[in-house]
Amino acid sequence: MTSYQRWTLRTEHTGYTVRLSPDGPWAELDAWGPHGVETGPSALDWSHRTHFITRADAAPAEYLPHGIRPFNGADLVASRPGHERGVWWTFGGAEGDEHSLRLTFTDDILGLRTVLCYATVPGTDVLHRWTELTCTGSEELRLDRLDSAAVNVPVTAGARLTYLAGQWSQEFQRTQLDLHRGTFGIGSTQGAPGHAYAPWLAVQDLTTDDAPAYGVALEWPGNWHITAEAEPGGAVRVRAGRVPHEGAVFLAPGDTLTTPRLACAFSPDGLDGLSRVWHRYERHLAGDRLQRTRKVLYNSWEATGFDVDAEQQLELAKAAADIGAELFVVDDGWFTGRTDDTGGLGDWYPDPAAFPQGFARFVDDVRALGLDFGLWIEPEAVSPGSLLYAEHPEWAYRIDDRPARLVRNQLLLDLGRPDVQEFVLATLDRLLTGYDIDYLKWDMNRPPTERGRPGAGPADRLDLDAEHVHGYLRVLDHLRSAHPHVTIEGCAGGGGRIEHATLARTDVVWPSDNTAPLDRLNVQYGFLHAHAPHVMSSWVTDAPGVFDPRPRSLAFRFVTAMCGVLGVGADLRAWTLDQRAEAAGWIARYKDVRDVIHHGEARLLGSPRDATCGVQYDAPDGRRTVVAALGTGRLTGAPLVPGRPSRLLLRGLDPAATYRDLATTTAYTGAHLLHYGLPFAWRADHDAELVVLTRQ
Ligand code: DGJ
């Protein structure tokens, strides 16, 4: 066996081995899988014979530029303006250890140094990859494609791709596609990850349904793309990166551009195991803030819409406190000029007509009920009739001499501008220091359309997408450091901006505006493949909800919302005493188990297409297992006809241990729960249960 220069990075349970190619000046994947997988002939080895393509086109390359890889898709396309495109580099050296690696490649003719960067994430099975591009010559460079990394997965029978697709109110629909040859692509040019696709992809060999799973997720709250190409040699090559709004980025002599990080994850246990790798990673992203109790929220948006006033909000707050909510959030509609979605954005002052005794007094009154106080804001938005827009029309995105289109009757501020950042920082500081606020919901309800910066010169010289991203992250970072006690919820018209840069700087995110029970179940099922329960905000709202008339019980709505961070968004004023009492019971039960839901290991049981599905949460010490079980409505006719209860097979338990349901005193062995599962006898009026098992 020929030996090549190789480097192995080790995560908690996996190894990722990169080698210098025997075929040319590039790095390629040698092995990626459980510890030890690198010993033996590489599964990515291939015949090294090519016809009509180059070896670089067939290699499992980690990152290759156009030039060296002319046909099958390059990760980097660079040129000197006015010259041919293409990079032909030489290997310039490696530095690193088991946890980080930097591989340098240089092209002295073009004047480009490219460093492929790797770093393992402590306590997880995730590896970060990104690329640093430095202009080393005396002329600027034009970068037409600047991916973060490419990831190779050897497949024998074709690839199964799992991705999260949808649209507004239908985000995170788990979707699968079998790829034998050709190219698959997802992405967004909406200045945010968008509702159509999450920047997340899982790849498995088609051999079995639960084949080992490889996953990638791009940390970038702007434009992005992920492609997967089934290549001739029996491998799938995934490429991911940001997409400059103007189509290209220019790099001045001496400057370095660092691409966003691509998180790469592996699990031998299929999509189920992969989801837990991502959950653990997001617990790592939360850092110390993971320990912060995610309080039971009440949000008044669905109850009162834009029609906000102190009296009615206090009535809702009182009802919320009575059923056990811990936090009251006033959503859109609290500020001047906001009687509907046509006005007010940008003028972030409480409406004196709505709060006649002053906003501070209102906040105090809410707090006197024993509730924390939260406020909604959409910092990047501006209404055309606002005072802010009259004063600073140049702050909104617009292309010189072109009309600016309204989406949801509003414009978008250019958060890449330092003056806009200062305005947003000052506004948030003023609100957060002026009032006793514990929670901030940051919303964004439109993408940039005519994305230009008036008077800023040639548009193709601006990197507006990256500037907006940096402004957004700068403000979030400031919130964390200047107002550390404030819990932050990320939202963009539902789940339009959910990725790891946002998740690292917020405490929870709002996956979708759709709170209708069965629709929500689908959203959450997809969401939990990629994201952890402790970030998943979920509300119980009024039946039948605004989107989906299929009836489900109050229990179903509570158990669904408890699968993440429980909130209530219904108009409690209209609830009967019985409904309020039932709600209080569910909230109390949730408080008792939320530490297991937010800190434990979660497993998705079945899918919303099944008669019964659910989520199993195991406490880190294994002493408690919580099962949220949901009957999706397929009635069997039992008990009027012969039938057996539906069962949910649990996973990961100790077969020899006894698990007791203290509510019913039923005892099960782990073997029973793993083999036969937990029984659920659904009826028309009984479609959800929360089971808490204590290991004896
Ligand atoms: C969209 C959000 O997703 C909703 O929860 C709500 O905050 C509205 N915007 C308010 O305009």
Any idea what the radius of gyration is? 26 Å
The ligands bound in this entry are: (2R,3S,4R,5S)-2-(hydroxymethyl)piperidine-3,4,5-triol
User: Which consecutive residue ranges, at least 5 long each, have pLDDT under 50?
Assistant: none
Q: Indicate the CATH architecture of the largest domain.
A: Alpha-Beta Barrel
What features would you describe in this structure?
The chain is α+β, with helices and mostly antiparallel strands and 696 residues long. It has 3 domains: 6-287, Distorted Sandwich (Beta-galactosidase, Chain A, domain 5); 288-598, Alpha-Beta Barrel (TIM Barrel); 624-695, Golgi alpha-mannosidase II (Immunoglobulin-like, Sandwich). Helix content is 21%, strand content 30%. It is built from 13 helices and 37 strands. The strands form 7 sheets. Strands 5, 6, 7, 8, 10, 11, 13, 14, 18 and 19 form a 10-stranded antiparallel β-sheet that branches. The model has no long low-confidence stretch (mean pLDDT 96). The structure holds (2R,3S,4R,5S)-2-(hydroxymethyl)piperidine-3,4,5-triol. (2R,3S,4R,5S)-2-(hydroxymethyl)piperidine-3,4,5-triol binds next to loops.
Key traits:
696 residues; alpha+beta; Beta-galactosidase, Chain A, domain 5; TIM Barrel; Immunoglobulin-like; 3 domains; 10-stranded antiparallel β-sheet; 8-stranded parallel β-sheet; 13 helices; 30% strand; globular; binds (2R,3S,4R,5S)-2-(hydroxymethyl)piperidine-3,4,5-triol
